[in-house]
Amino acid sequence: MSSSSSAKVRFTWMFDDQTGLLTGTNDGTLVNFFLRNLGPKSEKSLCIYLLVFQGIACGFGFLLRHFLAGDVAERILETPLVNSVCQDKVVWEEERNECYSVKSGYKLAMRYIIGSDKYHVAGNWNDIWKAQAPHKVRHLLWRLCRGCLPTRYRLLERRVECNLNCPVCDEEIEDEIHIFFRCAVARDSWCAAGLSMVLHNDAYHQSNAMDRIFAMCSNESSAIVVHKLQSNGESRTAEANLVRWEKPALGWVKCNVDVAFVPDSGRTSVGLCFRNNRGQVMAGMTQWQQTVMSSVEGEA
């Protein structure tokens, strides 16, 4: 039999070797501690169970400090008992004010998704997002590298029945490499933008679109490519702002027409859009014609 005292209350402890019961008495109040040795030959693996009657836990700290390490005992003692907790609440650790927000929830989800091997795609993605180019250009390059563009090849992968050939040149399967680098229209667009180096430089002849984009962004001449993309976007934006669409007068319908043609294919595409005086779309149409004409003739 042994005795120990806390700050205000003195307990007398009695341990039964057969039952493993440690009983503390103080003015007739019993506080029972069940001691069980988890390892047959290990005194350190000692588990303590405390039954607290009427919230009385005096002398419990003495037992914890005796049987457990100091830091472990202090952590247990810092845990508030149920009766001492006045009001519980839910907190969100991702915000300083401990309140949930969609922004912090999205960031947490992105950290989980990006950190997961299932969704992680290797590559120097920072070169794309740090490029000094319009956001729509960077977003397009990102979608191109991730295979998010609805090409005929990607649609077939998602069980959409369609013709795989490119609808413009009808020469190859429409995938990311074809529509951006191999199609005749795409090659003409690169040359018209002053970026023929993308087509003729051996550093940009990788087997897939993602590797080509990464090579363009990491190559020393990528600054020229980005500058051309940015300047072309700015010039087209300035030209587009010169003419603005206006609503027709009351009782009138305005028809806007656009025509494009590919000389080598011998076909011309036509698009029409009808809007009322409130700017609402009433009808629209697209059509391919087996003839070659200028844009002025086609729109006329």
UniProtKB/TrEMBL annotation:
Membrane spanning residue stretches: 46-68
Protein's name according to its UniProt entry: Pentatricopeptide repeat-containing protein
Tree of life domain: Eukaryota
InterPro entries according to UniProt: RVT-Znf
Keyword terms: Membrane, Transmembrane, Transmembrane helix
The keyword Transmembrane is annotated on this UniProt entry: yes
Pfam families: zf-RVT
Domain Reverse transcriptase zinc-binding per the UniProt entry, residue ranges: 100-190
Organism the protein comes from: Trifolium pratense
